[in-house]
Hints:
With 188 residues, the protein is an alpha/beta fold.
Amino acid sequence: MQITSAKFMRGVSGTDELLSDGTPQVALIGRSNVGKSSLINSLTGQKNLARISDTPGLTQEINVYGINHKFYLLDLPGYGFAKVPERIREDLQKLNWWYLFDSPHIQHTAVLVLDANVGPSKNDTEMLALLREHQKNIVIVANKIDKIKNAEYAVRLQAIIDLAQGLPVIPYSSKTGTGGEKLANKIF
Ligand code: GDP
């Protein structure tokens, strides 16, 4: 699906009528600083739709974006950033957990965003296992591929393909736009 309109709806931190209005939901999940904000901006073609921050871990709500008046794209708080105070980290984890595993909301797709240059972290692997356990419709984004040296590209990508065990993996770069069309077609 080609994205023709994208709009920030609001941030939610729990039960909200927005999430119960029947619009299919696509959840973006990933560790802090993995590039989710940049991905939202590049995918929608709107430079400033999502705030890109060099101070990760500050998003304490689930930001909901309306796509083509047909889907909600949900940016879940990034996990695993050490500099965020423990209490806030726990709250964010609770919010993610509630939305993904405890709330009645059924995700159309759960998009796990990984840093392809750094490789999957322990938190990423745990999150993927949980998503599988809860039988989510999972798509994996191998993000920041522009950062990978040519000589290392095949190995880095293979590490993610191995982890994915048959789930779709989409190489992506917000910087070059690689993967944008493929991702939009896959998740919407
Ligand atoms: P978030 O915390 O997941 O929302 O991450 P951001 O979108 O704020 O990005 C974190 C940092 O990674 C920023 O400095 C971005 O410019 C950078 N970044 C994000 N995506 C890419 C990408 O595809 N390629 C490169 N080279 N840098 C990226």
